[in-house]
Predict the 3D structure of the following.
Amino acid sequence: MKKSLSDLNQKMVKCIQCPLSDSRTKVVTGRGSVPCDVLFVGEAPGRDEDEQGLPFVGASGKQLDKLLIEAGFGDVSYYITNVVKCRPIDAEGKNRVPSMYEINVCSGAWLIQQIKLLKPKIIVPLGRAPTAFFLQRYQGIPMEVDLVRMGDQHGKPFEIEGIQIIPTYHPASTLYHQANAAILLDDLKKVKEFV
């Protein structure tokens, strides 16, 4: 299985299926246990991730690591990736939210294959962009990222192909809205119970 995921990663790093490939430094495939009990799916690489080629290595990654420890994930195997594997930037070179087009192209090509190889019991979309992807693809709900309200979606499980999906807030949101940290921690504890 690790070899299969390694083969997939080698294909991902050569991807030019959408314009995000034009400005990336590195393709950010993922990190963690193979196979895994829980698959965390974030939005997109930021500057730190683009430079290092690893997901969640910046401030939001440190926050996620801290909350996973608090939620008791020490004995849980997990893998972390994003719905898009290349950093989306705006005209000023700053991070931006990926479009649904970019999400669908990238996740349709890569995330779906990662899920098949990793065989998680639970998928945790972190934030609006991955939640929009899962709602659209598996619930058949026409979706745009801006329409997702995490206050309505977080902690509410639904199932796809035998896998529990439990959306929650992106760790970055907890850095700006302290109340979200307690909510994210509670949701992670629910995920731990499902495992």
Notes: The chain has one domain: 2-194. The beta strands are 31-32, 38-42, 78-82, 122-125, 158-160, 163-165. The mean pLDDT is 92.
